[in-house]
Amino acid sequence: MKILVAVKQVAALDEDFEIRADGRGVDPDFLIRDLNEWDDFSLEEAVKIKEASSGPVEVVAVSIGPDEVDESLRKCLAKGADRAIRIWDDAVEGSDSIAIARLLAAAAGREAPDMLFAGVQSSDQSFASTGIAAAALLGWAHAAVVSSLTYAPGAKTAIFRRELEGGLLQEIEIQCPAVLTIQLGINTPRYASLRSIKQAAAKPIEVLTPADIGVGDGDVGEAGSLSRVRRMYVPDKGRAQLIEGSAAQQAARLAEIIREFKGAAP
Amino acid sequence: MSRTDAVTRILFEAFSAAEVRLFYVLGYAAIAVFCWGFYVQVRKYRRGAALALEGGVWGRLGAMVSSVLSHRTIDRRDPAAGGAHRLIFYGFMLLFAGTATITLEYDILEPLFGIRFWHGEFYLVFSLVLDVAGVALIGGLLYMMYRRGWLRLPKLDYARPDRVPGDPDFNRPQYRREDWAFLWILLIIGCTGYLLEAARLVWLADRPDVWDTRWWSPVGAAAAEGLRALGLGESGAGLLRHGLWWFHGLIALVLIALIPYTKVKHIFTSAASLMVRDPLAAQRLPRVPDSQEQVGAAKITDFNWKQLLNLDACTKCGRCHEACPARAVGAPLSPRDVILSLREFAHATLESATLPAAAELDIHGKAPGQVAMETLWSCRTCMACVEICPVAVEHIPIIVQMRRKLVEDGAMDPLLTKTLQTIHKTGNSFGESKRKRSAWTKGLPFPVKDARKEPVDVLWFVGDYASFDPRNQKVSQIFASLLHEAGVDFGILHDGESNAGNDVRRVGEEGLYEVLAAANVNALASASFKSIVTTDPHSFNTIRNEYPDFGGKYEIEHYTTLAKRLFTEGRLRVANPLKYRVTFHDPCHLGRFNKGYDAPRELLALLGCELVEMGRCKANSFCCGAGGGRIWIPDPVGSEKPAQNRMKEAAAIPGLEVYVVSCPKDLTMFEDALKTTGNEGKFAVKELIELIREAIPAHLPEEVTA
Prior knowledge:
The complex is a heterodimer. Chain A is α/β, with parallel strands linked by helices.
């Protein structure tokens, strides 16, 4: 039995960041990288299923990204994944979420897991499409925003719940293999101590190129993407302003502003 | 047997050969039982992990003998108990030595070499000495009984804060029974010794060598007069002496046999524990070798032999129980009970012939003998327990090693998990960008040097709280100004500095500590400086005591000693003496950990402040509650916080104006506690640095702002 967990190393903005010279992203010097928060939960869900199972279950973390992603994969290994796969070559740079899904689907085809978990979305790009697109490419059943799951490894179906608007819960039975995107709060992700991350260095991270899993260069990167980022920028500041001073001073200033707006003489 | 030609000790007089043989059989049996018990104990310790001690055995022996003979550690904070113990100790030792000397002559020297010394004046003097020793012993025992029975000291109450009434190990009445049995057995041995002596005197009253020298045993002689006054004749006394001889002898043999199995063993274990004491037990926590697969203590056998010995050294004196700030505010922790639980656990598992399966050696949990995670997380690692323990039990490394296991399992408060992740990601506990670490310097009218770019005399290791906490940033700005005005050539590491790791290590996240220590040692290696100063006692402790294990050896001082030097050298001058009535809170990591008691007090005197000490000061200072990572774990709602407990103590000082601290975390904790205890407006909490600023207003530069 095998569960494949798609994880992503996301970037968070540092204080006072700068935009890259080409204007299409943030200067990497100002990015702090970490495992995507949603993926913490999907990995934990897979590891919990493994721990609760009487039979052998393999949890495989898969990510698409350059060398530095190994750091996040090691965290996954420390938390209980048995092995990890990282897919990359320079041609992958510039892929949109569908092109990434293509790689993910190819990896799933190769691994033939019983389940593919992904996070609902990534905290840096928030497309919320990679997992679902991979399901479409694989032709598997899929569901998004899963908030609780009952699944015995190897079973033909799984039962899960989704939270809908208005406090409504939806319970769904789904055919396996399936792709589920996991919502925050489904479990309590465990802490990976630095020591366990260090020890996880002994577990294997397999590095593959798109070609290794049968994806051609034309199917990844900008060439393989139907969308591309045009520019990234910080919009001009709005007109909000903070009024400082004592309560009386603030009130006086506020009254002054209102009078200005009304066109009255100051 | 009988020697009428010389004054000597009456031994087996009037005993049949069979009786003498029986006594020897019983004596050897008692020794055999003792030896077996001794072996079982040693085997138990040897089942612990290996440990190589630093330092030579003679130095350790000397230190132990000096502690034991002087009773220095037992006198502390309880001189009455120390005095009584001293009487018992010396009384018992002399009586034991006396008996041993008789054995030496009677069973070894005389039969083998014909040497006799136990007669004449030597005997008489020894007889006097032993009589006095008996009085000391009985006096000490009576005081201890008075103490247990009438004074009913809270620290001698075995009710546990980490258990509830009804739990099988809630207040452990077997301890109480053992305590009393120990006192009574010694008292009976002492009293029957005198009675036996008196009966012997009456019985042999017709023998001048016995009767005429009786006043060399004054207590026995007085008792003999008493017996005679009660009408006891010679033959009656002979019978009484015979009975008492056996009674006294058998009890003494039973006591010897029971030593390894009862609290009596503390005469060996406590002495041995003192001998293997680590003077930096709490200041410098044990490293985990890279080769070691498992981190932290999960099983009883993960403790090293010295720690297992520590468990047996505990005499349940309750001083750590009394000193513990967590216990004082009702948290489910008493350092005494951690030690006693583990001792019971080791007793139940490690004394059998074969070692039980690993599953039965798990020390984490709520069963009797196990330690609950709530207990472990209650600890502030403030060192109050280690510092006061009279027998060198080292609680902190035991607790931290157990926490390491909890951290590996993720068994901790979610907020602490978050903080550790934050520190890993950003290098500080505030989750701020590294770039913002030196943002507080921007408000200064002068640039603060980057010690990585230009050489400086003094490198200031600022620390997280002094760098990021808005209230403490103001203090940092003042300290920078003072250094600047005094002409000190100083610099900081700016964004190269990381959290020093002191508290991360005490939480038990050893892997993260290793990362932080390595990062700081590297950053310091890239800087050029002569010495380090810090306003943060936590950083001070770990850099001073723990970084050397990570390749970082520096000259480092807390700001209080540097500031004092700047005053004595005339580089800072008090222009405006402060007339405040103040009290000073010793930070754990400056005071107890590093003995920095004097410099802050000398500074306060220089500033013109009137210092009124709190009851708990210097070595007995009361932790603010922030240590050991507790600043990142919320205290339970509704319960008193250690800082609030402390504020009440300070508020009891009449006319107190300023509660002086010299630690960034203290400033945060106590300003909060000042408000929550309703003392705001009655007195102020200030950093010593702020008082220095007040006393040197002439130098005050233009307003410094964040």
